[in-house]
Amino acid sequence: MKLLVKAPAKINLSLDVLHKRPDGYHEVEMIMTTIDLADRLELTLLERDEVKIISHNRFVPDDQRNLAYQAARLLKDRFSIQKGVLITIEKTIPVAAGLAGGSSDAAAALRGLNKLWNLGLTIHELAELGAEIGSDVSFCVYGGTALAKGRGEMITPLPAPPTCWVVLAKPFIGVSTADIYRRLEVEKIDHPNTKAMIQAINENDFSKVCSNLGNVLEDVTLKLHPEVAQIKDQMKRFGADAVLMSGSGPTVFGLVQHDSRMQRVYNGLRGFCDQVFAVRMMGEQHTLD
Ligand SMILES: C[C@](O)(CO)[C@H](O)COP(=O)(O)OP(=O)(O)OC[C@H]1O[C@@H](n2ccc(N)nc2=O)[C@H](O)[C@@H]1O
Ligand SMILES: Nc1ncnc2c1ncn2[C@@H]1O[C@H](COP(=O)(O)OP(=O)(O)OP(=O)(O)O)[C@@H](O)[C@H]1O
User: Fold this and answer.
1) Which of 98, 146, 242, 275 is most buried (most C-beta within 10 Å)?
2) 236 and 259 housed in the same domain
3) Looking at 47-135, which runs of residues are DSSP E strands?
4) By percentage, how much of the chain surpasses pLDDT 90?
5) Residue 62 designated active-site
6) Could you tell me which residues are beta bridge partners of residue 155?
7) Phi/psi-derived region of residue 247, left when phi > 0, alpha when psi is between -120 and 50, beta in every other case
8) What number does the ligand 1 atom closest to the CA of 181 have?
9) Domain boundary residue among 158, 180, 211?
């Protein structure tokens, strides 16, 4: 038996850090949304007790470091599953890019294995398990648009943001999320207005979404990698309506409402960056069918 599962990337429309917690994590308030740029996972049921990963991507580990592997192991251990799975990952989301590629693969594995192994778990139970793998995994289990609190695992769904193009540009560098959080000076943060962003989404107001984009990790990554600031400038110059770095970076995204302008931004960035994509946001949350 085989199953195909889609694992979409996310962007952070807003990312605020409230304080550093005693457990070393940061208390966050983030608004995230899934976009139409996705990895694809093929899950093949194995009768023997084994989890195997194939990825064909030299940046993606094919052992216990892979987050999809960890998702399968977690379910096997927690529910004493004797069967196994071969997970083949067709990677499209850039790696270590701030787009939650690994987290989304883990979330897709949780959703898919729930079906493949007939576990009968609810989406909320899967999201709770996801939090044990990584802070972004719970959001990725649900997908859609949401406010994420805690260390990222407390999810409140929001409506889909106004329709627009998302142009993504990733420079030729990878970034370590742990390193960026470590360098953040919490007492110097200029906080984004999360409430205003939620209001903008609820009112379906594109220009208000644009004016309330904000990410407190952006300055940290920009200082380390000036090429990220250059990409931001380029995007603005080519006519993006608003521009922000996603997550801990280094990917920069531009929101663009009009088709012709999207083409201009996309063409302008190609050749200048490692990878460039023009995609739509995906409003819908995942369902378990
Ligand atoms: C930057 C974001 O991607 C924005 O969506 C997330 O906040 C990070 O999510 P993630 O990559 O799933 O994070 P995890 O794998 O749980 O943590 C990686 C490292 O980032 C730091 N980390 C992460 C989340 C958080 N709220 N505070 C932190 O300080 C911790 O040092 C942790 O060891
Ligand atoms: N399935 C996977 N896909 C990609 N990377 C993975 C995967 N599993 C583990 N990794 C490891 O995780 C590291 C970070 O990759 P990932 O693409 O998830 O980062 P990211 O997009 O910055 O994540 P986030 O936005 O959640 O911080 C990679 O360097 C890789 O070694």
Assistant:
1) 98
2) yes
3) 51-54, 84-90
4) 94
5) no
6) 148
7) left
8) 29
9) 158
Looking up residue 36, the CATH number of its domain turns out to be 3.30.230.10
Domain of residue 36, residue span: 2-158
pLDDT tens for each residue of 153-188: 999 999 999 999 999 999 999 899 999 999 999 999
Closest CA to 159 of 31, 6, 289, 36: 31
pTM above 0.95, yes or no: yes
Q: Is the CB of 25 under 6 A from ligand 1?
A: yes
**What CA–CA distance (Å, rounded) separates 141 from 6?**
11
**Residue tagged active-site, from 16, 136, 170, 241:** 136
* Residue of minimum CA distance from atom 26 in ligand 2: 100
Pairing of strands 242-245, 252-256: antiparallel
Q: Which residue among 139, 158, 177 closes a domain?
A: 158
Residue of minimum CA distance from atom 19 in ligand 1: 178
Query: Considering every ligand atom, which ligand is closest to the CA of 31?
Result: 1
How many Å lie between the centroid of ligand 1 and the Cα of residue 28? 10
Q: Is 102 helix (H, G, I), strand (E, B) or coil?
A: helix
